[in-house]
């Protein structure tokens, strides 16, 4: 039964073909272990560049970070709205966003459908999952909003060794905005480079995505459309 279910899930994943999704190349079942084989992305993950790689974050200027968000949002919109059956990712996080420079690609999870099994990563899990235990499209939007805040601030979603008030990124961002200190949210590497207006717009979108009330969050397609308008004048001037 489990193996049949696994193969059915793999078939769903193999139909998901989009330039911003990492391609599933095959799978293997051996001695009870199940492996999915994806295309190798030599540049590694967004988490690696933002938080682990020496000088990695400084190489991610604002136009690059915006391009990463646009690419990842398009991949997620394809999963939510175009792919049949629709796919709930359930574990959007910076380590599941791989870089192929300028473009970003999402790793698909193994279990694809709405489920009663709680999954996710601390700091990215929507607040409603604690009560409902059901993964949803709006839950994915919350997790994507956290990734947006991560790129804007350069901070991890949860920083264990920080004082309690600034430990969780979402709570800290809401607090800073309520005190009128939103410019302090932005990664120091990004400040003073002339992109403040664009970053404020993306911050507004991110805060809508991490709204505590899932019904007040935008759809991922709305996020895609908003991100397209951010920096569009700059893109026109370059062409």
From TrEMBL:
SUPFAM superfamilies: Protein kinase-like (PK-like) (SSF56112). It is a single-pass type I membrane protein. Its EC number is 2.7.11.1. Its main location: membrane. GO terms for cellular component: membrane. Keywords: ATP-binding, Glycoprotein, Kinase, Leucine-rich repeat, Membrane, Nucleotide-binding, Receptor, Repeat, Serine/threonine-protein kinase, Transferase, Transmembrane, Transmembrane helix. GO terms for molecular function: ATP binding; protein serine/threonine kinase activity. Residues 1-227 form the Protein kinase domain. It is found in: Membrane. It catalyses: L-threonyl-[protein] + ATP = O-phospho-L-threonyl-[protein] + ADP + H(+); L-seryl-[protein] + ATP = O-phospho-L-seryl-[protein] + ADP + H(+). This is non-specific serine/threonine protein kinase.
